[in-house]
């Protein structure tokens, strides 16, 4: 209830009884007073009439009109008497004084005194006049039988008395009563209201305090007076507010200390993470360097004719390095996704071409494992990033082949969402994934059947990269599988209308031969430098090897003409690969085609290379990738060499 409403109701409750009592008392007083005035008026009329009757008795008896007239005129002198009349026994008017209202005989012949006519301003009263029966003392009369005689009717006396004096008095009485009533109500109401206010005010105070406490303000304390009817409640409220204040202060204190503790723990955790990241980055860099050299040496070894058993050993060596490279590539993908530097280039892409490239890359893996890789033709186009989508599908098909021992792996597309999207399904008849692991398999480093972390079985990074790339491209990913019943991974990609192109490979630059191309390789790691020199040699390139930026500059100063520069980023001195390439270009006075290599995976370097317009190859660089990049960088005319 609102405070104003409460106050109003209290006022009504206090004033209403006063009003009723005063009205009743004033009403009763007025009623009785008006009654008394009426009675007094009637008595006076009766007395005056009696006076006329008694004064007229002799005149009537003796037939003396003069005596009758003087009796009537004497009574007429009274201020409130308007007229006096005397009638004989037959209702014939004998005398009158003052103007009068005519009366008929029937009205007169009433036996006793009474009002004959009542008008607004006057009363007409009449009374019969009897002869007085006077008993004379007669000593000789028989005392045993007293004589009884009836009084003799002599006539009628009629009087008209004015009511205006009575009406004025009645009016005065009413006015006085009204004034007394109003004053009574006013005073009563005033005192009742003040009394009510004494009760309401403390309630209002209490309710205001409760409202403030409800709004979280515990500061105010009620000033409790000795005779306050709500003293106990006010005391209770004060105590409650005090306890709430303590409680809040204590809670705030606890929150502050908990926040401090949390912040400290967070800082500790951040420091630990930073230390871990630093260690990982350093370890990964140090690992990339020799793996890079190893990859180059093995690639070179592959080109040499070796006895069968040595060739088999090289093959195994290659597989091990391949696994290591896969792991390092996975880590690189993750750090790129973490750093948000993955470049997305959305464009229409042919699903048919995508499927063909999957067959080309993984067809042999299926054959080697004795599995049937079935790829259903699909002629639609989708809107996505070709490189990233291909990597995702490859990853899923690779998993399907890895976790299927016999049977089929199927890659197909079907239209969904009323033909607005294509769902690319990768189905296998393999070991399946239990329902409880459906979320877990997408976490990094989670592998279900590789407790020993045998590295030839992967690292548990593939699905995590697929899921994060899907989120980046806005692709829906779904998994349906149960243990022993095969698996289906689905990617839902938006469809587009096939663009008007003859073939997506049209317009690609013609393949450039690397024979005779003068390549300047700058690398401070001697093993890597040797490996690169050997490999490039085997491709027919003329290699200029430099172990530092100074050596590289010197080679150019000596007048060597260079077609391509392949430089490491960290060169062990002040000048890094980026600055070296810029310096060499300035020295040569032309944009020598160049690329960077690095064992660093940090995002800032990727950004720098991108800004300088240079392709950055992360170590370990796969020979095939290096070769195709070199071909891409060289102008077509280079084939003339
Ligand atoms: N098609 C599948 N059938 C059965 N299990 C699968 C399938 N695909 C993935 N899994 C399970 O999910 C785990 C995680 O897969 P993920 O691709 O992330 O890692 P991985 O294949 O083990 O290693 P990586 O992909 O890094 O080479 C796998 O180890 C495997 O247990
Ligand atoms: Mg995998």
From TrEMBL:
Is GTP-binding there in the keyword field?
no
| Highest taxon, organism lineage | Bacteria
User: Which positions does the record annotate as the modified residue 4-aspartylphosphate?
Assistant: 568
Stretches of the chain forming a coiled coil according to its record: 248-275
For molecular function, the Gene Ontology terms on record are: phosphorelay sensor kinase activity
Positions of transmembrane segments: 173-193
Sorted alphabetically, which Pfam families does this protein's record hold?
A: HAMP (PF00672), HATPase_c (PF02518), HisKA (PF00512), Response_reg (PF00072), sCache_4 (PF09984)
Q: Which residues form the HAMP domain?
A: 197-249
Compartments it resides in: Membrane
Occurrences of domain Histidine kinase (ranges): 282-497
What are the UniProt keywords, alphabetically? Coiled coil, Kinase, Membrane, Phosphoprotein, Transferase, Transmembrane, Transmembrane helix
Q: Which reaction does it catalyse?
A: ATP + protein L-histidine = ADP + protein N-phospho-L-histidine
- For this protein, the Enzyme Commission number is 2.7.13.3
Q: Which residues form the Response regulatory domain?
A: 518-634
Give the principal location in a single coarse category.
membrane
Its top-level enzyme class, in one word, is transferase
Any single GO CC term annotated in Swiss-Prot or TrEMBL for this entry = membrane
For the keyword Transmembrane, the answer is yes
What name does the UniProt record give this protein? histidine kinase
Identify the species of origin.
Answer: Rhodoferax aquaticus
Q: What is the lineage of its organism?
A: Bacteria, Pseudomonadati, Pseudomonadota, Betaproteobacteria, Burkholderiales
């Amino acid at each position: 209830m609102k405070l104003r409403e409460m106050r109003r109701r209290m006022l009504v409750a206090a004033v209403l009884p006063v009003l009723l009592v005063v009205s009743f008392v004033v009403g009763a007083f007025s009623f009785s007073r008006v009654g008394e005035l009426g009675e007094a008026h009637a008595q006076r009329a009766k007395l005056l009439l009696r006076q006329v009757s008694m004064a007229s008795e002799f005149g009537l008896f003796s037939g003396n009109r003069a005596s009758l007239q003087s009796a009537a005129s004497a009574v007429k002198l009274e201020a409130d008497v308007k007229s006096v009349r005397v009638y004989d026994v037959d209702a014939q008017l004998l005398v009158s004084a003052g103007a009068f209202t005519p009366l008929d005989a029937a009205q007169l012949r009433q036996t006793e005194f009474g009002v004959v006519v009542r008008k607004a301003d006057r009363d007409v009263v009449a009374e019969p006049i009897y002869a007085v029966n006077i008993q004379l003392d007669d000593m000789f009369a028989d005392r045993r039988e007293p004589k009884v005689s009836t009084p003799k009717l002599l006539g009628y006396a009629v009087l008209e008395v004015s009511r205006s004096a009575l009406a004025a008095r009645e009016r005065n009485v009413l006015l006085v009563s009204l004034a007394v009533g109003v004053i009574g109500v006013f005073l009563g109401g005033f005192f009742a209201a003040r009394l009510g206010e004494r009760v309401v005010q403390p309630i209002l105070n209490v309710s205001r305090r409760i409202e403030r406490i409800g709004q979280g303000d515990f500061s105010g304390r009620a000033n409790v007076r000795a005779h306050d009817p709500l003293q106990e409640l006010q005391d209770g409220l004060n105590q409650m507010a005090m306890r709430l204040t303590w409680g809040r202060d204590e809670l705030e204190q606890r929150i502050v200390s908990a926040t401090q503790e949390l912040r400290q723990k967070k800082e500790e955790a951040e420091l630990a993470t930073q230390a871990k990241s630093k260690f990982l980055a350093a370890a990964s860099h140090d690992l990339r360097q020799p793996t890079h050299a190893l990859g180059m040496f093995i690639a070179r070894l592959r080109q040499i004719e070796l006895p069968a058993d040595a060739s088999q050993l090289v093959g195994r060596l290659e597989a091990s390095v391949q696994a290591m490279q896969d792991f390092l590539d996975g880590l690189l993908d993750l750090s790129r996704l973490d750093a948000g530097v993955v470049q997305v280039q959305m464009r229409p892409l042919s699903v048919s071409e995508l499927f063909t490239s999957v067959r080309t890359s993984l067809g042999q893996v299926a054959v080697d494992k004795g599995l049937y890789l079935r790829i259903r033709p699909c002629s639609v186009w989708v809107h996505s990033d070709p490189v990233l989508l291909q990597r995702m599908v490859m990853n899923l098909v690779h998993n399907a082949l890895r976790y299927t021992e016999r049977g089929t792996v199927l890659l197909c597309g079907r239209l969904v969402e009323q033909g607005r999207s294509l769902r690319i399904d990768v189905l296998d008849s393999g070991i399946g994934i239990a329902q409880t692991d459906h979320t877990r398999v997408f976490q990094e480093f989670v592998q279900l059947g590789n407790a020993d972390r045998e590295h030839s079985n992967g690292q548990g990074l593939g699905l995590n990269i697929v899921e994060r790339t899907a989120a980046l491209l806005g692709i829906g990913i779904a998994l349906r599988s149960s243990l022993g019943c095969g698996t289906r991974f689905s990617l839902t990609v938006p469809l587009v209308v096939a663009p008007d192109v003859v073939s997506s490979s049209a317009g690609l630059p013609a393949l450039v031969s690397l024979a005779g191309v003068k390549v300047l390789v700058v690398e401070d790691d001697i093993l890597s430098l040797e490996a690169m020199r050997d490999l490039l040699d085997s491709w027919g390139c003329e290699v200029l090897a430099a172990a530092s930026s100074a050596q590289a500059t010197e080679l150019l100063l000596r007048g060597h003409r260079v077609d391509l520069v392949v430089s490491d980023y960290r060169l062990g001195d002040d000048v890094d690969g980026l600055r070296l390439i810029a310096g060499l270009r300035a020295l040569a006075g032309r944009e020598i085609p160049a690329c960077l290599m690095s064992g660093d995976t940090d995002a800032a370097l990727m950004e720098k290379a991108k800004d300088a317009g240079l392709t950055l190859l992360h170590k370990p660089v796969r020979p095939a990738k290096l070769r195709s990049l070199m071909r891409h960088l060289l102008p077509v005319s280079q084939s003339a060499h």
